[in-house]
Amino acid sequence: MRTLRDLGDVGGKRVLVRVDFNVPLQNGAVSDDTRIRAALPTIEELRSKGARIVLVSHLGRPKDRDPSLSLAPVAERLGELIGAPVKLAPGVVGDGVRGAVDELGDGEVLLLENVRYEPGETKNDPDLARALASLVDAYVDDAFGAAHRAHASTEGVARLLDRRAAGLLLEREVSTLQGVLEDPGRPLVSVLGGAKVSDKIAVIERFLELADTILIGGAMAFPFLAARGHTVGDSLCSEQDVELARRILATESSRARIADLLDLVIGDSFGADAEVRTIDGVDVPDGWMGLDIGPRTAEAYGRVIAEAGTVFWNGPMGAFELEPFAAGTRAVAEAVASAPGVTVVGGGDSAAALQQFGLADEVTHLSTGGGATLELIEGKELPGVEALA
Ligand code: ADP
Ligand code: MG
């Protein structure tokens, strides 16, 4: 993968930088600027070298040119963060945009409008990729969160510009995750939770080969419990996922041990006002749902995490958005935050949980990618990364 260091002298050159500014908005302003901050090292590095920076990002999934998904609030926030004006282009491509690019001075920053205003973006339309490439001299991809999709502003445009490289964020994401997969400090402990079992099955399979211990929580626990003959009540648990869990439990060649769950927090409904019980055991009665790991499990998981050389965590341990079911995720987050080993956290909701508990700065690496992180772990090639080879 080519990096910024391979890009050569960019002074006075126009550089298209694909960033992931897919941030939450509230009342027309950016309500969480984590993703904008994550792109600052690359932007500052290019500015300090006198590049003329043309930023491109998607925001949400606009139908046509939905003005509520304009990047205008992002341009404003980015301008505050770098202490310099960030102009917003009148569109993604076209004459007005070309004019704005031509007016850029060395070290100045222009933000193109939401690239998904162009229907060709998600189709990886070669015409759109060519139009983007024609605006600039070089391309930098710093949008790790979009690297698993071959779109015009990621894979398409990269292949059209000889001068192309990974930005600092994308480089760090890929090298950190590859470090976990290829040469982890041992023991390697993988903490897997969340709701989307079928989405994550390939990740579990990879960690069965790579990890020493797998700690399972969240809704993901129930197919495994059902496969071992426990009752799951009304817990989130599809027959299809139970079948997948059976397959995994039958894998004989695995390196990893899947730790036992000891207890659960259950509720009579999915809501903050549910009736709540902690059960010492893992059989969920009829009419109840398992919504968090119990305190004994959380403590046992915490001990394994404390002794790990490397921890990879994806997916909350329970319905942490609801206070009665947040304790398991909080305990695991605290254990990961204070663990002496290398700690890597990926996944949108897992990152949100860390942030909610004020622990986001206490881990070695908080990945900005959701799907991209999981696909890299599964061993899939990411089109956005491949295009930078
Ligand atoms: P990530 O975004 O970190 O990859 P997921 O999207 O897979 O994580 O899962 C997060 C969601 O899983 C959260 O909204 C949480 O409420 C839900 N969840 C976790 N445990 C349970 C459970 N036992 N029952 C129902 N939902 C759960
Ligand atoms: Mg999620």
Notable characteristics:
single chain, 389 residues, 6-stranded parallel β-sheet, elongated, binds adenosine-5'-diphosphate, binds magnesium ion
Continuous helix count: 15
Q: How would you name the oligomeric state of the polypeptide chains in this document?
A: single chain
Report strand order across the widest sheet.
5-6-4-1-7-8
Q: In whole angstroms, how far apart are the ends?
A: 4 Å
Number of strands: 17
Show unreliable segments.
none
How much strand content do the residues show? 15-25%
Report the C-alpha radius of gyration, rounded: 23 Å
The molecules bound to the chains, other than polymers, are: adenosine-5'-diphosphate, magnesium ion
Shape: elongated
Arithmetic mean pLDDT: 96
Main beta-sheet strand count, sense and barrel state: 6 strands, parallel
Tell me briefly what this model is.
Helix content is 36%, strand content 16%. It is of the alpha/beta class and 389 residues long. A hairpin with a 2-residue loop joins strand 2 (25-26) and strand 3.
Explain what you see.
The radius of gyration is 23 Å and the shape is elongated. It contains 15 helices and 17 strands. It has 389 residues and is of the alpha/beta class. The longest helix has 15 residues, at 168-182. The chain has helices at 34-38, 40-48, 72-82, 95-102, 126-133, 152-158, 168-182, 197-210, 221-227, 239-250, 295-306, 327-338, 348-356, 371-378, 383-386, and strands at 14-18, 25-26, 29-30, 52-56, 86-88, 109-111, 138-141, 164-166, 188-192, 213-216, 257-258, 264-267, 276-279, 289-293, 310-314, 342-346, 365-366. The chain binds adenosine-5'-diphosphate (ADP) and magnesium ion. Adenosine-5'-diphosphate is lined by residues 194-196, 218-219, 236, 290-291, 314-316, 318-319, 321, 347-350, 370.
